[in-house]
Design goal:
Elements lengths: L5 H21 L20 H8 L3 E3 L2 E3 L9 E5 L19 E3 L21 E5 L11 E7 L2 E7 L17 E5 L5 E5 L3 E2 L5 E2 L4 H29 L1
Parallel strand pairs: 3-4, 4-5
Antiparallel strand pairs: 1-2, 2-3, 5-7, 6-7, 8-9, 10-11
């Protein structure tokens, strides 16, 4: 008596179950660790809290989460003030934030790269002894207010002296990448190292090769497993 005919059905059931789990997970809100770095919840009357109310966001721990549009379920506000922080790191989850409050912390210093990629950041609050990332030239307005340093209105790094398009390869254009940072992106119909290759990136060919390799590996594994099963 063999169980061979049942195997395809079992495989189909397993695949369907995995797909259902993945489908269900896609509709579950992402849990951001940075929102729970310190205790407490986002408070009304604070800079980030007021911003969240005006933006119709939803509070999650110390974060304000976007609920509408293309940026839905992303962090648009982060309040880590008075969290007894001594260093700043691991803020990548909040790279879409428009306002971040790090005031009232005993921060010794931080590397500007912490905010690399934060292209939408417009309001940053720091302890007074720290400087704004990228320097004052990266912000429209920098001021001291009590024990807080305010960095308002992030400037486009590509429009600052020394960060113009001519810093990029011949077929590349400058694109802002956070306060004081920029990156070079290839123009249309150019790609590769220093944008030297002309024509569109061969996406179909690459996907075809990867897909074919995946199928071959799957077949080899299937044949190997069948041989082991027969030997048993």
């Amino acid at each position: 008596m063999t169980a061979g005919p049942c195997r395809p059905f079992t495989v189909v059931v397993v695949v369907v179950m995995v797909m259902l789990v993945c489908f269900d997970a896609s509709f579950q809100r992402t849990t951001f660790q940075v929102c729970h770095v310190c205790e407490g919840a986002l408070q009304n009357g604070t800079a980030v809290g007021n911003f969240c109310s005006v933006s119709s966001g939803q509070a999650d721990g110390r974060c304000c989460i976007e609920t509408r549009g293309l940026d839905a379920d992303s962090i648009i506000g982060l309040d880590l003030s008075n969290c007894s922080l001594r260093e700043v790191e691991g803020l990548n989850e909040a790279s879409a934030a428009k306002i971040i409050d790090l005031s009232a912390n005993r921060l010794l210093n931080f590397n500007d790269t912490v905010f690399q990629g934060f292209t939408q950041l417009q309001h940053l609050m720091l302890p007074l002894h720290l400087t704004c990332p990228g320097g004052n030239a990266s912000w429209e307005k920098v001021e001291a207010r009590g024990e807080i340093r305010l960095c308002d209105g992030q400037r486009d790094s590509c429009n600052q002296t020394g960060h113009m398009t001519w810093d990029c390869p011949e077929n590349g254009l400058c694109a802002a990448d956070g306060p004081g940072f920029f990156q070079c992106r290839c123009t249309h119909r150019h790609h590769g190292y220093k944008c030297l290759r002309e024509g569109q990136f061969p996406l179909a060919e690459v996907l075809g090769i990867l897909g074919g390799a995946t199928v071959l590996v799957a077949i080899l594994l299937w044949v190997t497993q069948r041989r082991k099963a027969k030997s048993v």
